[in-house]
Amino acid sequence: MKSDDIDNEELTRLLRKFGKAGDRSREALAAHRKFYDHIARVLDRQALQATNYNEDLAVTAVQDAWLRILRKAETYDPARATVKTWVKDITYKCAIDVLRKHYKHNRNTPLSNEDAASAKADGDAMATPTGAGHWLATAPVSDPDETACDLPSPEDRAYGSQLDRVMRACLNTLPTGDGPNYRLAMELTLEEELSYADMTVRLQEQTPPGVLINAEQVRGWVRAATQRMRRCVSAKLGWERPKRGGPATDQMETRA
């Protein structure tokens, strides 16, 4: 049996254990904690990708998704999808719902001069798609009734396609070359099972001879790339940039 099958069987067992209605036993609580430890990074990463790496929106999306997972644990069908695919689908729908509300609230809010200048400095060319993957093209694997977050409307799907194009364009404005390889660092964050140690090895392979990097530097590259992506996408779509001094929880810090 493949390791992925074993992992999914274990996740399914945990989901069944804590998903029983009214079960508040120690065993159920222990299963709940273990399941969360296994799945938290999957939710965080999916929410960050779907919300344009807006940490505040991603936190809200994960909170909504986790409540839906708790409510719908008994409805999970392993014949239709793996546990990870199921929770990613729920998280994606919740993130798009949060993003849609944010977009509708901020779509007419002009950028400040500082934000506009920062975005222009990060690059304004609409480039062609890269191999980073279709960030917002997560195909639904469950019926709308099985998750409390609504599916996007046709209008919102069109907006999602626009956002995807803009994000690809902004990704291509990130620096590569002999300096910090922000673009590759951002692309590597999309790979589910990569730790910072794994990312460091991959990035070191693309670094000029004689230049050594470590995991802490890679963390800094990811943070800087995330900030540039946010400014670039916000400028192109007319979003208001999150206020400075607010919560700055770095979801990427959950990597090993």
TrEMBL record:
GO terms (BP aspect): DNA-templated transcription initiation
InterPro entries: RNA_pol_sigma-70-like, RNA_pol_sigma70_r2, RNA_pol_sigma_r2
GO molecular function terms noted in the UniProt entry: sigma factor activity
Keyword S-adenosyl-L-methionine found: no
Superkingdom of the organism of origin: Bacteria
Keywords from the UniProt entry: Sigma factor, Transcription, Transcription regulation
Chain ranges of the RNA polymerase sigma-70 region domain: 61-102
Pfam families on file: Sigma70_r2
Keyword Transcription regulation listed: yes
Protein name per its UniProtKB record: Sigma-70 family RNA polymerase sigma factor
